[in-house]
Amino acid sequence: MSPPVAVVGGGSFGRSLAQAAGRTGQRVILWSRHARELEGGESITSTTRLDDLREAELVFFAVPSPHVAALADELGRSLDGSHLLVHVSRGLLGPELATVSEVLGARTPCRRVGALAGPLVARNLAEGHPGGAIIGSRFPEVIEAVSDAIGGPSLRVYGTDDLTGVEIASALVGLVALALGYAQRLGMGPGTLAVLTTRGLAEATRVGEVRGGQARTFAGLAGAGDLIAAVAGDGRPEVEFGRALAEGLDLRVAAERAGAYIEGAALAAQVAAFGQRAAVDVPLAVGLARLMAGELSAGQLIEALMARPAKRE
Amino acid sequence: MKLLPTRPLRLPRLRTYVPRPSDPKIFWFNSERADIVDEVVRRIMERYDLEESAELALNDAAYHEIRRLESDKSEGAKRKLDYWRGIVRRVGRMSVEGKHETLREVAHAMAKDVAGNFDPRVYHFASRFLPGVLTAAMNPSNILQNVMGGGGRLDELVASEGPIDKIRHISRRGTVVLVPTHQSNLDSIALGWVLFREGLSPVVYGAGKNLFTNPIVSFFMHNLGAYRVDRRVKASLYKEILKAYSCVVIERGYHSLFFPGGTRSRSGALESHLKLGLAGTGVEAFARNRARGIDRPVYFVPATINYALVLEAETLIEDYLKEEGRARYIIEDDEFSRVERWVSFFNKFRGLDSVCVIRFGEPLDPFGNPVDEQGNSLAPDGRIIDASSYVSRRGTPSVDARRDAAYTRALGKVLAAAYQRETVVMPTQLVAHVVFRRLVRATPGLDLFSRLRHRGDIAIPYDELTAELGETRDRLVALEAAGKVHVSNFVRRQPPASILEGVLSTWSGYHATRQVVRLQSGSVIAEDLNLLLFYQNRLRPFALDIAGDDEADRTAAREIAGMEHHA
User: B539 CB contacts (<8 Å, ≥6 apart)?
Assistant: First the structure.
């Protein structure tokens, strides 16, 4: 019998992943701090003990970035070099924009790590709507295991070895999606939204290349693909969060409305600081950071972004 | 058949040397050599099993060798050229067996050329007399006393530190792969001496063929376990043979030495992007042993080799500045080949404790985990974990080239971080850094090359410089306490004025034709900015941490930290 798939994190994304894996016929163990009842039949068991995940081979890690370090320490005690550890976070950590896989690699004994990204939304994943995803890992067995665990007729799973590119793309697309929701709510037209998203993606690519990712990745599912799904309205929480901010709600209330932890709120400031230190041009992140800190109004932000000299693309 | 240049001299074998059980594994090397070469050839044949790949490998080798040999005017080259041209003509018409047979012949010749030798007689001779001879070369007026006195002086010259007992202990359980920083051609000699002195086993290592051009150096290297890496041979078959060779050697338990930076650091900076190259075969060797059920761990031991003076500093930094690092990959004529530089090198460090500190870092398993005293891999929480879990899936160990390449890459990052932590700051580097920071402060925003034109423009009053040295030293010592770097005893203990004095006299003695700095009416004037850059580059990763609090200092430190480099 093949080993079960483990999912760490009982939030909406973690639960959806468990259901997606359950649907492909895998045994699934879902860990969360509080015991959970899950639809998905007998294939999914729920636990509050990380030690129960030891028997799994593939472990999904669906944890908001502020909790990554502490939970990685805890989880690491139950794992060893045989486990394949894959996260789905859109966050980056600290001033150097450390990726979640880097943190997992440093704080757990696991080296075979990866990141699952692309146009994945919890609800669609749980309900099995057709879609695609990308798994970034330098280890072929990780790509294979993820594809086996959740891939199928309704979910096309692509693989790349540009792990860093996938992680940076996923995080910064989250940020652009937030800006997108904001701009939509302000009534911006399609032309403005197109400028916002494409320049946002260019900004993400610049950051990604400095951090060692490949530009190509940003044109694929992890970058452009993910962003197109957001523009097409796949109901993702980042867009919802941006809209709520545009309505003048404060960060906490906006997050409640979005129904998920939004990495973008803290990320904008991190990326802005990184851009300054690494001499990378990140106008969108700088603008969003100042907006969320209350230093800029929406009108001022749009004005500042649109007034930038148009250079060669 | 000799496809590649002739091998170095060996001593005649008068009677078979029978190693004692207590001798290091390498004493058995010669009895296994033929077997190792055969194993390498077997793996190569396995790899090029398909007819097309065998043909491609032959064509590729012939193409590169013909290109190389066409510019070689020697008599031997012509014969070899004919051989390769013959292959090109015939290979298309050969049967499958013919292709494989030819490939086997070529691979065997190449593997034999690579394979090293270990002559215990040479080892015993070298370990007894080399320190004396070396010390004598450093101080010719005292030859007799030095030769008789053995290595006493050398002990003072070359210091060693780090978890040496632990390394000695785990080297009995598994294979040690020593991966030091690389700054000078003296590195392998200094390391060889320290290994002997500390009771650590001698190592096999790949040495560039350019080191084999001097017959004496060549004789010692060849007979002390070095295998030859000929960087001029570009054939991918040859590279595969080198990899297979180092892998087999590690698998069989021969402690090995690799410089993962590949070549001496041209800029003087620490290597920060490690591709590991042949050292990466340590990961594969571990996996192969496990897949065959052999419990022989592989331990990577990072080490930093820190010089107060770098023998080849002038050539290296020039090379770096010319941005010809690639074109002049093999420097044939540098200070290393000039005897008088050696003499003055060893003579001119009066007042500084040691001219060279070799610091060993904590041993790591191939997956970047630290190991305990017994050599067990440790998880971040300190628990013992089974290293073979990394090369297993569902309990079965296997060999997987792509997986092992990913592990190797991750290991490169861990080693680069270890280099930084295990760096020992030498007095010359500290003084160079403080003076260079002044230069950067005086030339804000300038690019490196414009900056380097300010020869003689920077004058720092002596007292001001000693005060700044003292402050910077104190910050370095604090950084050391935080576990981020090490400082040499001299830097730690001496008052700033003595540090400055020691460094000034060291520089003026060694880099005699090129004043690094000079004293004039109570001020220190920066003269040779290239050499200052070279010595200060070692401190670049720490620039921000050791800068003063005022804004000008911090800006300068940021500029230094961000300086472009190809180490």
Answer: B425, B429, B430, B433, B546
Find where tokens 């630290």 sit: B370
According to DSSP, the residues that pair with B364 across neighbouring strands are B300, B370
Contact B428, B499 (CB under 8 A): no
State the CB neighbour count (10 A cutoff) for residue B373: 10
CB neighbour class for B306 (10 Å; exposed up to 12, middle 13-18, buried from 19): buried
Q: From the CA of B415, how many Å to the nearest CA of chain A? A: 13
Q: Which long-range contacts (CB under 8 A, 24 or more apart) does B74-80 make?
A: B76/B2, B76/B5, B76/B6, B80/B2, B80/B3
Tens digits of residue pLDDT in A130-151 = 899 999 999 999 999 999 999 9
pLDDT at B237: 95
Instruction: Report d(CA A47, CA A53) in Å as an integer.
Output: 9
ipTM over 0.95: no
Report the C-alpha gap between A238 and A255 in whole angstroms: 9
Of A73, A106, A140, the CB nearest to B403: A140
Helices (H), chain A: 12-23, 65-76, 100-107, 122-127, 140-150, 163-185, 190-210, 215-218, 226-231, 237-246, 251-258, 264-278, 283-292, 298-306
- Best to test chain B binding among A59, A138, A143 (most B CBs inside 10 Å): A138
- CA pair distance B136, B143, nearest whole angstrom: 5
The CA distance from A32 to A38, in Å, is 12
Short-list A41, A48, A75, A57, CA closest to A6: A57
- A3 in contact with B, Cβ within 8 Å: yes
DSSP state for residue B366 in the 8-state scheme: T
The pLDDT tens digits for B302-359 are: 999 999 888 788 888 888 887 644 444 445 556 665 555 555 565 555 455 567 899 9
Comparing CB atoms, the residue among A81, A108, A161 nearest residue B380 is: A108
CB of A256 within 8 Å of a chain B CB? The answer is no
Q: What are phi and psi of A84, to 5 degrees?
A: -105, 120
**Burial grade of B213 (CB within 10 A; 0-12, 13-18, 19 or more):** exposed
The amino acid that residue A149 corresponds to is A
- Distance (Å) from the alpha carbon of B15 to chain A's nearest alpha carbon: 49
Query: Where do we find the tokens 């570009």?
Result: B234
Task: Specify burial of residue B20 (Cβ count, 10 A radius: 0-12, 13-18, 19+).
Answer: exposed
Contact A111 B390 (CB under 8 A): yes
E-state strands within B221-364: 226-229, 256-257, 298-307, 356-360
Q: What torsion do the CA atoms of A29, A34, A37, A38 make, to the nearest 10 degrees?
A: -50
How far is the CA of A216 from the CAs of A161, B46, B372, in angstroms?
12, 35, 42
Task: From chain B, pick out residues whose CB is under 8 angstroms from the CB of A73.
Answer: 380-381
Length of chain B: 567
pTM (two decimals): 0.89
pLDDT for res B141: 39
- Alpha-carbon distance of B427 to B135, in angstroms, equals 23
Q: What is the Cα gyration radius of chain A?
A: 19
Task: In whole angstroms, give the CA distance from residue B304 to residue B487.
Answer: 12
Secondary structure of residue B377 in the 3-state scheme: strand
Q: Is A141 on the interface with B (CB under 8 A)?
A: yes
Please count the helices (runs of H) and the strands (runs of E) in chain B: 22, 16
Do residues A45 and A29 touch, judged by C-beta distance below 8 A? yes
Minimum Cα–Cα distance from A137: chain B residue: B406
Return d(Cα B164, Cα B161) in angstroms, integer: 7
Nearest to B389 among A76, A81, A138 (CB): A81
pLDDT score, position B137: 45
Contact assessment for residue A149 and residue A21, using Cβ atoms and an 8 Å cutoff: yes
